[in-house]
Give the backbone structure.
Amino acid sequence: EAGVAQSPRYKIIEKRQSVAFWCNPISGHATLYWYQQILGQGPKLLIQFQNNGVVDDSQLPKDRFSAERLKGVDSTLKIQPAKLEDSAVYLCASSLDRKGAPQWDLYGYTFGSGTRLTVV
Amino acid sequence: KNEVEQSPQNLTAQEGEFITINCSYSVGISALHWLQQHPGGGIVSLFMLSSGKKKHGRLIATINIQEKHSSLHITASHPRDSAVYICATYSGGGADGLTFGKGTHLIIQP
C-alpha cells in the first residue's frame, strides 16, 4: 500500500515569497490533516478536512495560509506571503474513517514524510 | 485545553539499556498515540492506547487513565532505535486533531 505522498521534500524561499505544498493521502482515506512542526516542538494541527470539507481550521493563520482539497483526494497548502517564522516541517497525515468505529479510533492514521520549509 | 508533557526531552544511552520515556497529560482523553520520527523522515505510529498495555517486539507502551500518564519502554535498545519519540493524545470532540508533546530525542550509542 502506498503511503501518504508529499512534495516537495525541501523548499527554500525568501520572506514575502509564496510557496505551495502538495499532499496525496492514502487511497480511500476520508480525513486529511496538515500539521506544522517547528524545530524542537511537536506537530501543531493547521487544518483538518473530511472529504472536501473543512472540519477544523481554528489554528490556521488565515491571513497568509490557505488550504484546499477540492475533489476530496489530494490537497494543497499555500503560504502567501511567507515570514521567517514559517520555517518548519509541514506534515500531511490521513486516516480512514470506519463507519460505526469510535471517533478516537484513528484507524490507519499515517503521516507523510513532510516538506521542510526554510524562509530566509 | 489538554497539555501534554514528555520527559526526558533528551536521552542518550548505551546499546542494550532499558529505556523509559514518560508522557503526562492534563485532561481526560479517549486515546493516546506513541509516534516515532526519524531524522529527515516522516512519523510512524507505534501504538494507540486507550487502556492497559500493548507490546510490539521490544517496545512496550502502558497507560494509566486515572493518573493521566503513559510510558513507552524499549528493551535491549539498539542504535537503530535512535529517533524522536512523540506522545500525542486524542480528546475527542469530533473536530479535534491530536495534541502533541514536544518529543523525546533518544540516542542509543553502540
